[in-house]
Protein backbone atom coordinates (compact mmCIF):
# COMPACT_ATOMS: atom_id res chain seq x y z
CA UNK A 1 0.00 0.00 0.00
CA UNK A 2 1.23 3.46 -0.86
CA UNK A 3 2.05 5.70 2.06
CA UNK A 4 3.23 9.14 3.04
CA UNK A 5 5.86 9.90 5.63
CA UNK A 6 5.29 13.27 7.26
CA UNK A 7 8.31 15.08 8.58
CA UNK A 8 9.26 18.51 9.86
CA UNK A 9 12.85 19.75 9.93
CA UNK A 10 14.11 16.21 9.29
CA UNK A 11 12.09 14.72 12.17
CA UNK A 12 9.60 12.02 11.17
CA UNK A 13 6.23 12.89 12.70
CA UNK A 14 4.05 10.11 11.42
CA UNK A 15 3.46 7.57 8.69
CA UNK A 16 0.18 7.80 6.82
CA UNK A 17 -1.18 4.88 4.78
CA UNK A 18 -3.24 5.74 1.71
CA UNK A 19 -6.18 3.46 2.44
CA UNK A 20 -8.96 5.54 0.90
CA UNK A 21 -9.65 6.60 -2.67
CA UNK A 22 -9.41 10.22 -1.70
CA UNK A 23 -7.26 11.64 1.04
CA UNK A 24 -7.43 15.30 1.99
CA UNK A 25 -4.64 17.22 3.65
CA UNK A 26 -5.11 20.52 5.50
CA UNK A 27 -5.09 22.45 8.73
CA UNK A 28 -8.73 21.90 9.65
CA UNK A 29 -9.59 18.84 11.73
CA UNK A 30 -11.94 17.25 9.18
CA UNK A 31 -9.01 16.49 6.87
CA UNK A 32 -7.81 12.88 6.64
CA UNK A 33 -4.31 14.10 7.28
CA UNK A 34 -4.39 17.13 9.50
CA UNK A 35 -1.36 19.39 9.75
CA UNK A 36 -2.07 21.98 12.39
CA UNK A 37 0.12 24.82 11.21
CA UNK A 38 -0.85 28.29 10.05
CA UNK A 39 1.23 28.00 6.87
CA UNK A 40 -1.02 25.13 5.81
CA UNK A 41 -4.41 26.07 4.37
CA UNK A 42 -7.65 24.76 5.86
CA UNK A 43 -8.12 22.53 2.82
CA UNK A 44 -4.69 22.42 1.31
CA UNK A 45 -4.30 19.42 -1.00
CA UNK A 46 -5.98 16.22 -2.08
CA UNK A 47 -4.62 12.81 -3.09
CA UNK A 48 -6.70 10.70 -5.46
CA UNK A 49 -6.05 7.03 -6.06
CA UNK A 50 -6.83 5.80 -9.56
CA UNK A 51 -5.91 2.17 -9.95
CA UNK A 52 -2.33 1.95 -8.83
CA UNK A 53 -1.68 5.62 -9.55
CA UNK A 54 -1.78 8.39 -6.98
CA UNK A 55 -2.48 11.95 -8.09
CA UNK A 56 -1.73 15.01 -5.97
CA UNK A 57 -3.83 18.12 -6.38
CA UNK A 58 -3.36 21.50 -4.76
CA UNK A 59 -6.72 22.92 -3.61
CA UNK A 60 -5.81 26.53 -4.37
CA UNK A 61 -3.95 26.73 -1.09
CA UNK A 62 -2.54 30.06 0.01
CA UNK A 63 1.07 28.95 0.13
CA UNK A 64 0.94 26.29 -2.56
CA UNK A 65 2.13 22.70 -2.78
CA UNK A 66 5.50 21.66 -4.13
CA UNK A 67 6.73 18.34 -5.45
CA UNK A 68 10.50 17.95 -5.53
CA UNK A 69 10.82 21.73 -5.26
CA UNK A 70 8.41 22.51 -8.11
CA UNK A 71 5.01 24.10 -7.48
CA UNK A 72 2.24 21.83 -8.76
CA UNK A 73 -1.49 22.05 -9.43
CA UNK A 74 -2.15 18.40 -10.24
CA UNK A 75 0.42 15.71 -10.74
CA UNK A 76 0.96 11.97 -10.85
CA UNK A 77 3.18 11.02 -7.92
CA UNK A 78 6.20 8.79 -8.39
CA UNK A 79 7.82 6.63 -5.77
CA UNK A 80 10.16 8.77 -3.68
CA UNK A 81 8.59 12.13 -4.59
CA UNK A 82 8.92 14.77 -1.88
CA UNK A 83 5.74 16.78 -1.36
CA UNK A 84 6.13 20.06 0.53
CA UNK A 85 3.43 22.07 2.29
CA UNK A 86 5.03 25.01 3.99
CA UNK A 87 7.79 23.60 6.18
CA UNK A 88 6.22 20.16 6.26
CA UNK A 89 7.52 17.45 4.01
CA UNK A 90 5.66 14.36 2.86
CA UNK A 91 7.68 11.59 1.29
CA UNK A 92 5.61 9.48 -1.09
CA UNK A 93 6.28 5.73 -1.10
CA UNK A 94 4.51 3.93 -3.93
CA UNK A 95 2.66 0.70 -3.40
CA UNK A 96 5.08 -1.60 -5.20
CA UNK A 97 8.20 -0.23 -3.61
CA UNK A 98 7.50 -2.00 -0.36
CA UNK A 99 6.45 -5.20 -2.10
CA UNK A 100 9.46 -5.26 -4.35
CA UNK A 101 11.68 -4.85 -1.33
CA UNK A 102 9.92 -7.78 0.29
CA UNK A 103 10.94 -9.89 -2.66
CA UNK A 104 7.53 -10.45 -4.21
CA UNK A 105 7.94 -12.42 -7.42
CA UNK A 106 8.23 -10.29 -10.53
CA UNK A 107 5.91 -12.67 -12.31
CA UNK A 108 2.92 -11.33 -10.41
CA UNK A 109 3.46 -7.75 -11.39
CA UNK A 110 1.60 -5.95 -14.06
CA UNK A 111 -0.50 -8.72 -15.45
CA UNK A 112 -3.26 -7.38 -17.57
CA UNK A 113 -6.68 -7.15 -16.02
CA UNK A 114 -10.02 -5.89 -17.14
CA UNK A 115 -12.07 -3.20 -15.56
CA UNK A 116 -15.59 -2.52 -16.69
CA UNK A 117 -16.08 0.60 -18.77
CA UNK A 118 -17.41 3.37 -16.59
CA UNK A 119 -16.24 1.47 -13.55
CA UNK A 120 -13.78 4.17 -12.63
CA UNK A 121 -15.42 5.98 -9.79
CA UNK A 122 -12.87 7.90 -7.81
CA UNK A 123 -15.37 8.46 -5.01
CA UNK A 124 -16.75 4.91 -4.81
CA UNK A 125 -15.93 3.06 -1.63
CA UNK A 126 -13.14 0.59 -1.93
CA UNK A 127 -14.38 -2.97 -2.30
CA UNK A 128 -11.45 -5.30 -2.63
CA UNK A 129 -12.62 -8.15 -4.85
CA UNK A 130 -12.24 -11.60 -3.42
CA UNK A 131 -9.94 -12.72 -6.22
CA UNK A 132 -7.47 -9.98 -5.52
CA UNK A 133 -5.57 -10.02 -2.29
CA UNK A 134 -4.60 -6.44 -1.80
CA UNK A 135 -6.21 -3.09 -2.32
CA UNK A 136 -7.81 -2.16 -5.59
CA UNK A 137 -9.07 1.17 -4.46
CA UNK A 138 -10.83 3.33 -6.98
CA UNK A 139 -12.18 1.04 -9.67
CA UNK A 140 -14.78 -1.62 -9.43
CA UNK A 141 -13.19 -4.70 -10.83
CA UNK A 142 -15.81 -7.13 -9.62
CA UNK A 143 -15.64 -10.60 -11.08
CA UNK A 144 -13.44 -9.54 -13.96
CA UNK A 145 -10.25 -9.28 -12.03
CA UNK A 146 -7.83 -11.58 -13.76
CA UNK A 147 -4.79 -11.46 -11.62
CA UNK A 148 -3.24 -9.85 -8.66
CA UNK A 149 -3.61 -6.11 -8.77
CA UNK A 150 -0.73 -4.26 -10.27
CA UNK A 151 2.12 -3.51 -8.01
CA UNK A 152 4.21 -0.54 -8.75
CA UNK A 153 7.52 -1.51 -10.15
CA UNK A 154 9.96 1.09 -11.32
CA UNK A 155 8.87 2.07 -14.83
CA UNK A 156 10.88 0.40 -17.60
CA UNK A 157 13.97 -0.75 -15.82
CA UNK A 158 16.47 1.50 -17.50
CA UNK A 159 18.65 -0.74 -19.57
CA UNK A 160 22.31 -0.30 -18.95
CA UNK A 161 23.53 1.99 -21.69
CA UNK A 162 26.26 0.74 -23.95
CA UNK A 163 29.41 2.83 -24.01
CA UNK A 164 29.47 5.64 -26.56
CA UNK A 165 30.87 4.55 -29.90
CA UNK A 166 31.24 5.88 -33.42
CA UNK A 167 32.28 4.87 -36.88
CA UNK A 168 34.82 6.67 -39.04
CA UNK A 169 34.78 6.42 -42.82
CA UNK A 170 38.19 5.32 -44.09
CA UNK A 171 37.71 5.32 -47.86
CA UNK A 172 35.59 6.89 -50.59
CA UNK A 173 34.16 10.39 -50.95
CA UNK A 174 33.35 10.73 -47.26
CA UNK A 175 36.72 9.53 -45.99
CA UNK A 176 37.60 11.06 -42.65
CA UNK A 177 34.03 11.70 -41.61
CA UNK A 178 32.83 10.24 -38.32
CA UNK A 179 29.34 9.25 -37.24
CA UNK A 180 28.41 8.92 -33.59
CA UNK A 181 26.26 5.87 -32.93
CA UNK A 182 23.74 7.60 -30.69
CA UNK A 183 20.61 5.97 -32.03
CA UNK A 184 19.51 2.49 -31.09
CA UNK A 185 19.64 1.60 -34.73
CA UNK A 186 21.86 3.10 -37.41
CA UNK A 187 21.66 2.00 -41.02
CA UNK A 188 24.67 1.97 -43.29
CA UNK A 189 25.11 1.47 -47.02
CA UNK A 190 23.06 2.17 -50.10
CA UNK A 191 19.42 1.02 -50.32
CA UNK A 192 19.07 -1.37 -53.23
CA UNK A 193 22.79 -2.16 -53.21
CA UNK A 194 23.86 -3.22 -49.76
CA UNK A 195 22.45 -2.21 -46.40
CA UNK A 196 23.45 -3.19 -42.90
CA UNK A 197 22.37 -1.90 -39.52
CA UNK A 198 24.34 -1.33 -36.37
CA UNK A 199 22.20 -1.81 -33.30
CA UNK A 200 23.10 -0.42 -29.93
CA UNK A 201 22.26 -2.89 -27.19
CA UNK A 202 23.00 -2.89 -23.47
CA UNK A 203 25.78 -5.38 -24.06
CA UNK A 204 27.42 -3.59 -26.97
CA UNK A 205 27.08 -2.84 -30.67
CA UNK A 206 26.00 -5.41 -33.25
CA UNK A 207 26.08 -5.38 -37.02
CA UNK A 208 23.41 -7.18 -39.04
CA UNK A 209 23.03 -7.64 -42.77
CA UNK A 210 19.70 -6.25 -44.06
CA UNK A 211 19.70 -6.31 -47.86
CA UNK A 212 21.91 -6.82 -50.87
CA UNK A 213 23.42 -9.89 -52.52
CA UNK A 214 26.54 -9.92 -50.36
CA UNK A 215 26.92 -9.44 -46.65
CA UNK A 216 29.29 -6.85 -45.18
CA UNK A 217 32.87 -7.70 -44.28
CA UNK A 218 34.26 -7.19 -40.79
CA UNK A 219 38.05 -7.25 -40.71
CA UNK A 220 37.99 -8.81 -44.17
CA UNK A 221 35.65 -11.64 -43.18
CA UNK A 222 32.05 -11.81 -44.38
CA UNK A 223 29.60 -11.74 -41.47
CA UNK A 224 26.95 -14.41 -41.05
CA UNK A 225 23.20 -14.07 -41.27
CA UNK A 226 22.93 -13.39 -37.55
CA UNK A 227 23.91 -10.17 -35.83
CA UNK A 228 27.58 -10.03 -34.85
CA UNK A 229 29.06 -8.01 -32.07
CA UNK A 230 31.56 -5.34 -33.02
CA UNK A 231 34.84 -4.91 -31.19
CA UNK A 232 36.85 -1.74 -30.82
CA UNK A 233 38.77 -0.89 -34.05
CA UNK A 234 36.89 -3.37 -36.22
CA UNK A 235 37.01 -2.42 -39.91
CA UNK A 236 33.68 -2.77 -41.70
CA UNK A 237 33.50 -2.95 -45.48
CA UNK A 238 30.14 -2.27 -47.00
CA UNK A 239 29.01 -1.20 -50.50
CA UNK A 240 32.63 -0.61 -51.40
CA UNK A 241 33.32 1.70 -48.46
CA UNK A 242 35.62 0.93 -45.56
CA UNK A 243 34.87 2.27 -42.12
CA UNK A 244 36.19 1.75 -38.65
CA UNK A 245 34.14 1.10 -35.54
CA UNK A 246 35.56 2.41 -32.29
CA UNK A 247 34.57 3.01 -28.69
CA UNK A 248 34.97 6.58 -27.53
CA UNK B 1 -10.60 -17.24 -53.72
CA UNK B 2 -7.74 -15.33 -55.22
CA UNK B 3 -4.62 -15.24 -53.14
CA UNK B 4 -3.17 -11.93 -52.02
CA UNK B 5 0.29 -13.32 -51.37
CA UNK B 6 1.63 -11.72 -54.58
CA UNK B 7 0.79 -8.27 -53.22
CA UNK B 8 1.15 -8.60 -49.45
CA UNK B 9 4.04 -9.95 -47.43
CA UNK B 10 3.52 -10.92 -43.81
CA UNK B 11 5.77 -12.12 -41.04
CA UNK B 12 5.22 -12.55 -37.33
CA UNK B 13 7.07 -13.57 -34.18
CA UNK B 14 6.07 -14.09 -30.58
CA UNK B 15 8.32 -14.36 -27.56
CA UNK B 16 7.76 -14.98 -23.86
CA UNK B 17 10.03 -12.07 -22.93
CA UNK B 18 12.63 -11.98 -20.18
CA UNK B 19 10.44 -12.31 -17.09
CA UNK B 20 7.33 -14.36 -17.77
CA UNK B 21 7.64 -18.11 -17.67
CA UNK B 22 5.12 -18.71 -20.43
CA UNK B 23 3.73 -16.96 -23.43
CA UNK B 24 0.08 -15.95 -23.32
CA UNK B 25 0.19 -14.17 -26.67
CA UNK B 26 -0.99 -15.86 -29.85
CA UNK B 27 -0.57 -14.82 -33.47
CA UNK B 28 -1.97 -16.02 -36.78
CA UNK B 29 -1.19 -14.51 -40.15
CA UNK B 30 -1.87 -15.60 -43.68
CA UNK B 31 -0.90 -13.42 -46.62
CA UNK B 32 -3.05 -15.58 -48.94
CA UNK B 33 -6.21 -14.44 -47.19
CA UNK B 34 -4.87 -10.99 -46.29
CA UNK B 35 -5.54 -11.75 -42.63
CA UNK B 36 -3.47 -11.05 -39.53
CA UNK B 37 -4.62 -11.66 -35.95
CA UNK B 38 -2.82 -11.06 -32.65
CA UNK B 39 -4.18 -11.75 -29.17
CA UNK B 40 -2.74 -11.14 -25.71
CA UNK B 41 -4.37 -13.49 -23.24
CA UNK B 42 -4.90 -12.89 -19.54
CA UNK B 43 -6.13 -14.74 -16.50
CA UNK B 44 -5.25 -17.56 -14.12
CA UNK B 45 -2.41 -20.04 -14.48
CA UNK B 46 -2.34 -21.02 -18.14
CA UNK B 47 -5.83 -19.83 -19.04
CA UNK B 48 -4.52 -16.69 -20.75
CA UNK B 49 -2.98 -18.71 -23.51
CA UNK B 50 -6.14 -20.77 -23.81
CA UNK B 51 -8.14 -17.58 -24.39
CA UNK B 52 -5.72 -16.07 -26.90
CA UNK B 53 -5.42 -19.44 -28.66
CA UNK B 54 -9.19 -19.83 -29.00
CA UNK B 55 -9.55 -16.24 -30.21
CA UNK B 56 -6.92 -16.43 -32.93
CA UNK B 57 -7.86 -19.93 -34.11
CA UNK B 58 -11.61 -19.39 -34.25
CA UNK B 59 -11.33 -15.94 -35.80
CA UNK B 60 -8.92 -17.13 -38.50
CA UNK B 61 -11.10 -20.16 -39.35
CA UNK B 62 -14.31 -18.15 -39.30
CA UNK B 63 -13.04 -15.26 -41.40
CA UNK B 64 -11.41 -17.52 -43.98
CA UNK B 65 -14.59 -19.56 -44.38
CA UNK B 66 -16.77 -16.45 -44.58
CA UNK B 67 -14.74 -14.62 -47.23
CA UNK B 68 -14.94 -17.72 -49.42
CA UNK B 69 -18.70 -17.22 -49.44
CA UNK B 70 -18.89 -13.44 -49.70
CA UNK B 71 -15.78 -11.52 -50.82
CA UNK B 72 -14.88 -8.95 -48.17
CA UNK B 73 -15.12 -5.93 -50.48
CA UNK B 74 -18.78 -6.50 -51.42
CA UNK B 75 -20.93 -3.77 -49.89
CA UNK B 76 -23.72 -4.90 -47.62
CA UNK B 77 -27.23 -3.93 -48.61
CA UNK B 78 -28.26 -2.72 -45.18
CA UNK B 79 -25.21 -0.99 -43.75
CA UNK B 80 -23.52 0.08 -46.99
CA UNK B 81 -20.28 -1.05 -45.37
CA UNK B 82 -18.07 -3.76 -46.79
CA UNK B 83 -18.82 -7.39 -45.95
CA UNK B 84 -15.49 -7.38 -44.09
CA UNK B 85 -17.18 -5.41 -41.31
CA UNK B 86 -19.97 -7.88 -40.77
CA UNK B 87 -17.63 -10.86 -41.06
CA UNK B 88 -15.09 -9.56 -38.54
CA UNK B 89 -17.73 -8.43 -36.08
CA UNK B 90 -19.65 -11.68 -36.29
CA UNK B 91 -16.59 -13.91 -36.01
CA UNK B 92 -15.21 -11.91 -33.08
CA UNK B 93 -18.57 -12.24 -31.35
CA UNK B 94 -18.47 -16.01 -31.93
CA UNK B 95 -14.95 -16.26 -30.51
CA UNK B 96 -16.03 -14.10 -27.56
CA UNK B 97 -18.90 -16.43 -26.77
CA UNK B 98 -16.72 -19.53 -27.13
CA UNK B 99 -14.16 -18.14 -24.66
CA UNK B 100 -16.86 -16.91 -22.30
CA UNK B 101 -18.59 -20.29 -22.25
CA UNK B 102 -15.32 -22.17 -21.80
CA UNK B 103 -14.46 -19.87 -18.91
CA UNK B 104 -17.88 -20.55 -17.36
CA UNK B 105 -17.72 -24.32 -17.73
CA UNK B 106 -14.04 -25.02 -17.01
CA UNK B 107 -13.03 -24.02 -13.48
CA UNK B 108 -9.35 -23.78 -14.42
CA UNK B 109 -10.29 -21.27 -17.14
CA UNK B 110 -12.53 -19.08 -14.96
CA UNK B 111 -12.04 -15.41 -15.65
CA UNK B 112 -9.84 -15.82 -18.68
CA UNK B 113 -9.96 -13.30 -21.48
CA UNK B 114 -7.86 -11.81 -24.20
CA UNK B 115 -7.18 -8.64 -26.12
CA UNK B 116 -7.40 -8.85 -29.87
CA UNK B 117 -6.25 -6.89 -32.87
CA UNK B 118 -6.81 -8.02 -36.40
CA UNK B 119 -6.42 -6.62 -39.89
CA UNK B 120 -8.16 -7.91 -43.01
CA UNK B 121 -6.76 -6.69 -46.34
CA UNK B 122 -8.88 -6.67 -49.51
CA UNK B 123 -9.41 -4.47 -52.55
CA UNK B 124 -6.65 -1.97 -51.67
CA UNK B 125 -8.32 -1.49 -48.32
CA UNK B 126 -7.98 -2.84 -44.82
CA UNK B 127 -10.52 -3.24 -42.06
CA UNK B 128 -9.13 -3.39 -38.55
CA UNK B 129 -10.91 -4.77 -35.53
CA UNK B 130 -9.59 -4.44 -32.02
CA UNK B 131 -10.52 -5.03 -28.40
CA UNK B 132 -8.26 -3.97 -25.53
CA UNK B 133 -4.74 -2.62 -25.71
CA UNK B 134 -3.09 -4.58 -28.52
CA UNK B 135 -2.28 -2.17 -31.29
CA UNK B 136 -2.10 -1.65 -35.01
CA UNK B 137 0.48 0.80 -36.34
CA UNK B 138 1.21 2.03 -39.84
CA UNK B 139 4.34 3.34 -41.49
CA UNK B 140 3.53 5.36 -44.59
CA UNK B 141 6.47 7.26 -46.07
CA UNK B 142 8.13 8.90 -43.10
CA UNK B 143 4.95 8.91 -41.03
CA UNK B 144 4.64 6.31 -38.30
CA UNK B 145 1.88 6.07 -35.72
CA UNK B 146 -0.92 3.99 -34.24
CA UNK B 147 -4.17 3.45 -36.14
CA UNK B 148 -5.97 2.01 -33.11
CA UNK B 149 -6.83 3.60 -29.80
CA UNK B 150 -6.42 1.39 -26.78
CA UNK B 151 -9.46 0.37 -24.81
CA UNK B 152 -7.66 1.07 -21.57
CA UNK B 153 -7.98 3.12 -18.42
CA UNK B 154 -4.97 5.21 -19.44
CA UNK B 155 -6.46 6.05 -22.85
CA UNK B 156 -9.72 7.08 -21.15
CA UNK B 157 -7.79 9.27 -18.74
CA UNK B 158 -5.89 10.80 -21.66
CA UNK B 159 -9.12 11.41 -23.56
CA UNK B 160 -10.64 13.13 -20.55
CA UNK B 161 -7.58 15.25 -19.92
CA UNK B 162 -7.05 13.69 -16.50
CA UNK B 163 -3.49 12.72 -17.25
CA UNK B 164 -0.76 14.07 -19.50
CA UNK B 165 0.97 11.83 -22.07
CA UNK B 166 4.14 12.14 -20.01
CA UNK B 167 2.32 11.02 -16.86
CA UNK B 168 0.73 8.19 -18.83
CA UNK B 169 4.19 6.88 -19.66
CA UNK B 170 5.03 6.78 -15.96
CA UNK B 171 1.66 5.45 -14.82
CA UNK B 172 1.35 2.17 -12.95
CA UNK B 173 -2.02 1.53 -14.59
CA UNK B 174 -0.68 0.30 -17.92
CA UNK B 175 -2.22 -3.11 -17.39
CA UNK B 176 -5.86 -2.06 -17.03
CA UNK B 177 -7.96 -2.67 -20.12
CA UNK B 178 -11.60 -1.63 -20.41
CA UNK B 179 -12.62 -4.21 -23.02
CA UNK B 180 -11.54 -7.79 -23.51
CA UNK B 181 -12.71 -10.82 -25.46
CA UNK B 182 -14.36 -13.57 -23.40
CA UNK B 183 -15.23 -11.59 -20.27
CA UNK B 184 -18.87 -10.88 -21.01
CA UNK B 185 -21.41 -12.62 -23.25
CA UNK B 186 -21.67 -9.40 -25.26
CA UNK B 187 -18.74 -7.61 -26.80
CA UNK B 188 -18.35 -4.45 -28.80
CA UNK B 189 -15.24 -4.72 -30.97
CA UNK B 190 -14.06 -1.49 -32.59
CA UNK B 191 -13.86 -1.63 -36.39
CA UNK B 192 -12.21 0.88 -38.68
CA UNK B 193 -11.55 1.11 -42.41
CA UNK B 194 -8.36 2.35 -44.03
CA UNK B 195 -7.28 2.72 -47.63
CA UNK B 196 -4.03 0.97 -48.32
CA UNK B 197 -1.12 2.23 -50.41
CA UNK B 198 1.72 0.33 -52.00
CA UNK B 199 4.76 0.70 -49.74
CA UNK B 200 2.76 0.84 -46.51
CA UNK B 201 4.09 -1.22 -43.63
CA UNK B 202 1.66 -2.32 -40.90
CA UNK B 203 2.50 -3.61 -37.46
CA UNK B 204 0.24 -5.51 -35.09
CA UNK B 205 1.74 -5.81 -31.62
CA UNK B 206 0.98 -6.72 -28.04
CA UNK B 207 1.64 -4.19 -25.26
CA UNK B 208 4.85 -6.06 -24.48
CA UNK B 209 6.31 -4.14 -27.41
CA UNK B 210 4.88 -0.66 -27.08
CA UNK B 211 5.27 -0.57 -23.27
CA UNK B 212 8.96 -1.40 -23.57
CA UNK B 213 9.98 0.40 -26.77
CA UNK B 214 9.21 4.02 -27.71
CA UNK B 215 7.09 4.57 -30.79
CA UNK B 216 9.97 6.52 -32.33
CA UNK B 217 12.28 3.51 -32.02
CA UNK B 218 9.64 1.14 -33.41
CA UNK B 219 9.17 3.49 -36.36
CA UNK B 220 12.93 3.66 -36.91
CA UNK B 221 13.15 -0.13 -37.14
CA UNK B 222 10.28 -0.29 -39.62
CA UNK B 223 11.64 2.44 -41.86
CA UNK B 224 15.18 1.06 -41.81
CA UNK B 225 14.59 -2.67 -42.01
CA UNK B 226 11.18 -2.98 -43.67
CA UNK B 227 12.90 -4.54 -46.70
CA UNK B 228 13.50 -7.58 -44.52
CA UNK B 229 10.42 -8.34 -42.41
CA UNK B 230 11.87 -11.32 -40.49
CA UNK B 231 14.84 -9.22 -39.44
CA UNK B 232 12.60 -6.30 -38.50
CA UNK B 233 10.43 -8.60 -36.35
CA UNK B 234 13.48 -10.05 -34.62
CA UNK B 235 14.86 -6.57 -34.08
CA UNK B 236 11.64 -5.34 -32.44
CA UNK B 237 11.48 -8.30 -30.08
CA UNK B 238 15.14 -7.94 -29.23
CA UNK B 239 14.63 -4.25 -28.38
CA UNK B 240 11.71 -5.09 -26.09
CA UNK B 241 13.81 -7.73 -24.35
CA UNK B 242 16.88 -5.49 -24.13
CA UNK B 243 14.70 -2.92 -22.37
CA UNK B 244 13.63 -5.45 -19.76
CA UNK B 245 11.15 -7.66 -21.65
CA UNK B 246 8.74 -7.63 -18.71
CA UNK B 247 5.84 -8.99 -20.75
CA UNK B 248 5.26 -11.39 -23.60
CA UNK B 249 5.98 -9.61 -26.85
CA UNK B 250 4.45 -10.35 -30.24
CA UNK B 251 4.59 -8.64 -33.60
CA UNK B 252 3.08 -9.21 -37.02
CA UNK B 253 4.54 -7.14 -39.85
CA UNK B 254 2.76 -6.58 -43.14
CA UNK B 255 4.26 -4.90 -46.17
CA UNK B 256 2.21 -3.91 -49.21
CA UNK B 257 4.26 -4.69 -52.32
CA UNK B 258 1.61 -4.32 -55.02
CA UNK B 259 -1.86 -3.02 -55.58
CA UNK B 260 -4.55 -5.65 -54.90
CA UNK B 261 -7.84 -4.36 -56.30
CA UNK B 262 -10.63 -6.93 -56.09
CA UNK B 263 -11.82 -8.47 -59.33
CA UNK B 264 -15.30 -7.23 -60.06
CA UNK B 265 -17.84 -9.38 -61.80
CA UNK B 266 -18.89 -8.41 -65.31
CA UNK B 267 -22.20 -7.12 -64.01
CA UNK B 268 -20.58 -5.01 -61.35
CA UNK B 269 -18.21 -3.53 -63.89
CA UNK B 270 -21.03 -2.83 -66.31
CA UNK B 271 -23.04 -1.25 -63.56
CA UNK B 272 -20.08 0.85 -62.52
CA UNK B 273 -19.58 1.94 -66.12
CA UNK B 274 -23.26 2.88 -66.52
CA UNK B 275 -23.32 4.66 -63.20
CA UNK B 276 -20.06 6.46 -63.91
Automatic annotation (TrEMBL), chain A:
<feature type="compositionally biased region" description="Pro residues">
    <location>
        <begin position="125"/>
        <end position="136"/>
    </location>
</feature>
<feature type="region of interest" description="Disordered">
    <location>
        <begin position="119"/>
        <end position="139"/>
    </location>
</feature>
<feature type="domain" description="FHA">
    <location>
        <begin position="23"/>
        <end position="72"/>
    </location>
</feature>
<dbReference type="InterPro" id="IPR000253">
    <property type="entry name" value="FHA_dom"/>
</dbReference>
<dbReference type="InterPro" id="IPR008984">
    <property type="entry name" value="SMAD_FHA_dom_sf"/>
</dbReference>
<protein>
    <submittedName>
        <fullName>FHA domain-containing protein</fullName>
    </submittedName>
</protein>
<dbReference type="Pfam" id="PF00498">
    <property type="entry name" value="FHA"/>
</dbReference>
TrEMBL record, chain B:
<dbReference type="InterPro" id="IPR036457">
    <property type="entry name" value="PPM-type-like_dom_sf"/>
</dbReference>
<dbReference type="InterPro" id="IPR001932">
    <property type="entry name" value="PPM-type_phosphatase-like_dom"/>
</dbReference>
<protein>
    <submittedName>
        <fullName>Stp1/IreP family PP2C-type Ser/Thr phosphatase</fullName>
    </submittedName>
</protein>
<dbReference type="Pfam" id="PF13672">
    <property type="entry name" value="PP2C_2"/>
</dbReference>
<dbReference type="InterPro" id="IPR015655">
    <property type="entry name" value="PP2C"/>
</dbReference>
<feature type="domain" description="PPM-type phosphatase">
    <location>
        <begin position="10"/>
        <end position="256"/>
    </location>
</feature>
